[in-house]
Amino acid sequence: MKKSMISMLVIAFSISLMVGCNSKESGTDSSSKVKLTVFSTISDEKGKEAFEEITKEFEKENPNIDVEVNFPGQEYENILKVKMAANDLPDVFDTHGWAQIRYGKYVADLSKESWASNLTDSMKPVLTDKNGKVYALPLNEAKDGITYNVDVLEKYGIEVPKTFDELLAAAEKIKKESNGQVSPFYFSGVDAWTIGQFFDYFATPLLISPEQNYSQDLLNGTFDWSKWTYLPEKYKEMYDKGLINKDMLTAKYSDLPKLFAEGKVAFFMMGPAFVGQAKEINPNLKVGYMPIPAIAEGDEPTFSGGERHTLAAWKDSPHLEEAKKFINFFAKTENLKKIAEATNLPAGIKGVNVDLGELTQYYEKYANIRVFPYFDRVYLPNGMWDVMCTNGQELIAGSITPKQFSENMKKQFERLREQQKK
Amino acid sequence: MFRPYQIKQTVLATPENGKKGRRIVDTEVRTQIQFVKKGLRRKKISSTVWLNVMYLPALLLFIVFIFYPFFKGLQISFTNWDGFSQTYDWIGLDNYKRMLHDPNIGTIIKNTLIYGIGSTLFQNIIGLAYALLLNQEMKTRGITRTIIYLPVIISPLIMGYIWYFFFQYDGGALNDIILLFRNTPLNILADPQWNVWIIMFVNTYQYLGIAMVIYLAGLQTIPRDFYEAAQIDGASSWQRFKHVTLPMLMPSITINIVLNLVGGLKLFDVIISLTKGGPGYASQSLSTVMYKYYFASMDAGYAAALGNLMFVLISVISITALIYLRRKEIAG
Lengths: 422, 332
Known about the structure:
heterodimer, A: alpha/beta, five-stranded mixed sheet, four-stranded mixed sheet, 45% helix, globular, B: mainly alpha, MetI-like fold, 2 domains, 14 helices, disordered N terminus
């Protein structure tokens, strides 16, 4: 009797301890302020600063709302995946290119908000579905192309390349005439997303943007993957010819801003987000920006685009109203302008005039260039990005051939498609 | 003539040392309990109840943080869960079958074994050598011990980065030295022939201190008389090491080997900071590849299956080692 009594008491005590912790938390929440948790993928300092300034103004205007902003950087995706698995998301979070495919079931519809009808033409299909649901507020808009060092191109007398062949010829010229002092391209095997970026960029001019394209085949899963081999073949060729930094397998992305600022790297296949950091090292750095060159004959260059930083509200958030209020505060013209300028990108909402300094001329010059959504988000199943990155590493390390690269793509493409068919 | 068994008998007689000694203590306790049993029945009940109550909190923690995740992991390994969706399908043993056809699984298991067994071997040999050296009377003993133990207190991730800067291709310390002698720098972190061994080396270097300290403690429990007795019997220094030091150190050897095996087999931080498992799969171990599959490839089911493989691998290797070494302890 006594034995079971004591055991019971202990169990009751430990349960009450746990419950006690819980009730205490919710108690403080309801009695005083509403606490909003916000997660953003912004990782560069200037962007973070702008975000925090706007948040502070919001808190000033809404003294009963307390906002906790998190910038987990590289860990963002993993944290959000864990939170999704537990079905316990932040009240407001960034969808970083996955508004519909990955986060679609978790975000609230924002189509009733005043800014929803002003999405730019290129952001509209990305953030709206056919039923009119608006998934997120774009804080800016990615028009990803190739960032280059203007001085390096001028020094070796190079015109901005319009086709992939011209790009490779330019790279060879730079390599030769600089005696290998300038690495035409820079990739990092440690931060393998830089490799994935190459394949994602050039898959569009190879397979999607030409008149004769394979977009239907990719969408219904009948794509002939031997057509893919062109990309790994070229990539390997670029590395073998010394057009890519020799230490790419162990180089880190964090070394890029310095090398770029010092004129040791000519082209980098990414938007100009790193430029701010490079300019701190070399304030006289001149940065140019170009669209992705065409591969097929008669085709024109393209931009790879879509979401970069967004704000979406969790549909089951206990503070959905406050979350929407927070998002709408960011949607004010002056705030969108601030964020877009801090992140060196155009705005995703019409009527916001963004001054991007020296980059403005490039965005204006290429205003009519077609913007294609990121290749992998539309044509590849969720999970293929990593396949591209890893196979790219293995290709350069010499453990697979370009043909095997395509075979691996096919295998994983089919496996993931099968898995996600629901 | 020098006869080791004589020493063994002395060991039995000292209760602080070795297995047998402990058994003497055990029997004492048991007789006490029996005494209690006979005399005070009521008191005995309440004492066992209290014993049960005492371990409840620990048990609760174990259930929440070890058993539940373990069974959940087992369950996930039979699904095609992507790691975040609310739904998944049961696919039976498919994840385990996939393992058999995974072209990289051979490399991964090989690397895991190199990290585990390789670093255990070196940590123990070098750790023991240092312990023997630093067990001697010498002036710089204290400071040398501290220096060798120092890496242990640095976070393994930071340790990895320190060595990354050493081995780095562009501007790494090693290449600065190499460039004095030849024109082309080495990129050894990218070389699958080398990077696995470098990771093993860094892990060995980091935890050498722990092995050394355990051996030092073990060495200090060996009574001087044994060596004197052996010396009188005419044992050479190698014989003294083989017949006195080694058998007396068996408990320390067991602890060291098992600890290092488990630590090395589940090595993670150093790999992430030095190579991130790359290039490709060249330096991945089971723990890093599991993380990669779970988060990057959205393949939580397969990651869970690999996790279970790792669990089995570690259990089999460390339990085998433990049983083997325990047997030696008793016989030695």
